[in-house]
Design goal:
- By secondary structure, the chain is α/β, with parallel strands linked by helices.
- It has two domains: 148 residues, Glucose Oxidase, domain 1 (3-Layer(bba) Sandwich), CATH 3.50.30; 205 residues, Rossmann fold (3-Layer(aba) Sandwich), CATH 3.40.50.880.
- The protein is built from ten helices and 19 strands.
- A ten-stranded mixed sheet has the order 10-12-11-13-14-19-18-17-15-16, with helices on both faces.
- Strand 15 and strand 16 form a beta hairpin.
- The longest helix is centred in the C-terminal third of the chain and has 16 residues.
- The structure holds glutamine.
- Glutamine binds next to strand 16.
- This is Carbamoyl phosphate synthase small chain.
- Its EC number is 6.3.5.5.
- Pfam families: CPSase_sm_chain (PF00988), GATase (PF00117).
Length: 363
């Protein structure tokens, strides 16, 4: 079966249909990771987006039961050059096609993903539609026009009720804006007792849980679409150590008075170099974001810049000068991908411990 991807600028790509037959409008973005398509497909930060993989062969190691970042994928569509439907890997449980069908995600293959990526790099990410080969272009463009980008993605992917992943160590509240399982896994690995709470929990509800530390997860969309979280952070930052990842980083920065803006085509991939001013080292990081903290907005706040992206010099990390709060724009829990920055979870827990010591609540 044939299928088309049409961009809002009128560019049409003819390809083959795979995955679910549903038509979908979303923001078309690209990811440069050579592996990790299962994690990409299941990362809630992609809610509302149609993701193009620049690596030309996708699906070759199948889909397995272990590598999900969430069990409810919310990605809107998947674009590849070649989709392998005969996966070969001892962990593979199903093919990419089977997975997409079961999760209502439309896919298109056999298009020139290099050409598409060059368009997005030149003109910036834009809306697009995955649709039947028979659909007229005018009608498709009209559908794109009538479908604005989502603004409520966090609400769509966050947990509705709090739940606990028990542990004997520090008590961490993890605010779920679209949590990747990897973050919970890193905390559990370090014996934390984790309470995952919905995105709209306010400061009082969180403080009542008496957390030793608070983590702010990744999540989809514009950080300014989650104003209640910004308010919550500004109210808890004085009293509890904080660590923010990706959307959590952007929210922490906004809560401290900095600003965020949308990047032309974002950072999505697993080999983004980031320079750390403390260690004077460059780390390879896994990334997936379309917005970033604006560097010039940091100087009038109590934040300091800790890390910067080497590709385009955008902000990758900040730290509060007075409180035990820091955050990074990339994914230190990344799996797959480099685990160079996994130490940040230990750093957060050191802050938590130091804070308890200062309150003479030593474990
Ligand atoms: N992975 C994330 O948390 C992404 C953050 C935010 N949605 C952005 O696109 O910039």
């Amino acid at each position: 079966m044939e299928r088309k991807l049409i961009l809002e600028d009128g560019t049409v790509f003819h390809g083959k249909a795979f995955g679910s037959p549903v038509g979908k409008v979303g923001e078309v973005v690209f990811n440069t990771g050579m592996t990790g398509y299962q994690e990409t497909l299941s990362d809630p930060s992609y809610c509302g987006q149609i993701v193009t993989m620049t690596y030309p062969l996708i699906g070759n190691y199948g889909i397995n039961r272990d590598d999900f970042e969430t069990i409810n994928p919310s990605i809107f569509g998947f674009v590849v050059k070649e989709a392998c439907d005969t996966p070969s890997n001892f962990r593979s449980d199903e093919s990419l096609d089977e997975f997409l069908i079961a999760n209502d995600i439309p896919g298109i293959s056999d298009i020139d993903t290099r050409k598409l990526t060059k368009i997005l790099r030149k003109h910036g990410t834009m809306r697009g539609i995955l649709t039947d080969a028979g659909e007229g272009e005018e009608g498709a463009l009209q559908k794109i026009e009538n479908t604005p980008l989502l603004t409520n993605q966090v609400e769509r992917v966050s947990t509705v009720k709090p739940y606990v992943a028990p542990g004997r160590g520090f008590r961490i509240v993890l605010v779920d804006f679209g949590m990747k399982h990897g973050i919970l896994r890193e905390l559990s690995k370090r014996n934390c007792h984790v309470t995952v709470v919905p995105h709209d929990y306010d400061a009082q509800q969180i403080l009542r849980l008496k957390p030793d530390g608070i983590m702010l997860t990744n999540g989809p969309g514009n950080p300014k679409s989650v104003p209640q979280a910004i308010e919550m952070i500004s109210e808890v930052i004085e009293t509890v150590p904080l660590f923010g990842i990706c959307l959590g980083h952007q929210l922490l920065a906004l809560a401290c008075g900095a600003d965020t803006s949308k990047l032309k085509f974002g950072h999505r991939g697993s080999n983004h170099p980031v320079y750390d001013f403390d260690t004077k080292r460059t780390y390879l990081t896994s990334q997936n974001h379309g917005y970033a903290v604006t560097e010039s907005s940091i100087k009038d706040t109590d934040l300091e810049l800790t890390q910067v992206a080497l590709n385009d010099k955008t902000v990758e990390g900040v730290r509060h000068k007075k409180y035990a709060a820091f955050s990074v724009q990339y994914h230190p829990e990344s799996s797959p991908g480099p685990d160079d920055t996994n130490y940040l979870f230990d750093q957060f827990l050191q802050n938590v411990r130091a804070h308890k010591v200062s309150k003479q609540e030593v474990l």
